[in-house]
Amino acid sequence: MGDKPISFRDAEGNFVSAADVWNEKKLEELFNRLNPNRALRLARTKKENPSQ
User: Fold this and answer.
1) Surface-to-core class of residue 32, CB atoms within 10 Å of its CB (0-12 exposed, 13-18 middle, 19+ buried)
2) Average pLDDT, stretch 28-51?
3) In the chain, domain spans
4) What is the pTM of this model?
5) What three-state secondary structure class fits 40?
6) What is the pLDDT of residue 5?
7) Any residues with CB less than 8 A from the CB of 18 and at least 6 apart, and which?
8) Would you give the DSSP letter of residue 1?
9) How far is residue 35's CA from residue 23's CA, in Å, rounded to a whole number?
10) pLDDT per residue over 10-32, tens digit each?
11) E-strand spans in the chain?
12) Out of the domains of life, which is the source (predicted)?
């Protein structure tokens, strides 16, 4: 399973790693909520460099 620090317990009382809970989609939503300009910047960059 690798070296994942235990961060908290789930509803059933089991230890859960943040790496198991925070997937790419949830992180993207969090980053965009904390920094609304990020989504605009990423969209602009993607528009300027469509090959990436």
Assistant:
1) middle
2) 86
3) 6-48
4) 0.49
5) helix
6) 64
7) 4, 5, 7, 8
8) -
9) 18
10) 889 888 877 777 888 988 888 88
11) 6-9, 15-17
12) Bacteria
